[in-house]
Write a structure and sequence with these properties.
The chain is α+β, with helices and mostly antiparallel strands. It has helices at 4-10, 54-74, 115-127, and strands at 17-20, 24-28, 38-42, 79-83, 94-99. The protein is globular. The chain binds guanosine-5'-monophosphate.
């Protein structure tokens, strides 16, 4: 069965996309730790990040770095944190999280955004790519 993220890639499920190329997609996390929390995924569905082909893994890091720089240009924060967990969705994803403090990395404190706020934020990050 396709992962929920493969359904986002195919357009079956909507997402607030911030960047895309032929191999990777970045979109806003629907239940963000902080405003600007973004997920970078490979279009090829792989469960665990360290099972990726080395070249693809390095390309994902390169893509994530570009997206992180665009988020940092868009969202006021001290820095962008990066995490890989994958316990909820078995499709590789790099979490990029604008940080104010350590609590932003704990996946406990969550923030809510309206559809309008999500849409405006995704467009603002796109412009800064
Ligand atoms: P993990 O698998 O790393 O534990 O977490 C999965 C992440 O994916 C969570 O932060 C969760 O909010 C996010 N997520 C789960 N389902 C969706 C979805 O349908 N759309 C978006 N944009 N994010 C999702």
């Amino acid at each position: 069965m396709s992962s929920i993220f493969t359904k986002i890639i195919s357009g079956e499920i909507p997402a607030y996309k911030v960047a895309e190329d032929d191999q990777f997609l970045a979109f806003l996390d629907i239940n963000p730790n902080a405003k600007g929390h973004t997920l970078c995924i490979p279009k090829k569905e792989v469960n665990k990040i360290f099972d990726m082909e080395e070249d693809n893994y390095l390309e994902l890091m390169k893509f994530s770095r570009k997206v992180a720089q665009a988020i940092e240009r868009t969202v006021p924060c001290k820095r962008i944190g990066m995490a890989v967990v994958g316990l909820e969705v078995p499709h590789v994803h790099v979490h990029l999280i604008p940080l104010q403090d350590m609590e932003d990395m704990r996946f406990v404190r969550k923030t809510t955004l309206s559809e309008i706020e999500f849409d405006a934020l995704a467009k603002a990050i796109q412009k800064n790519m």
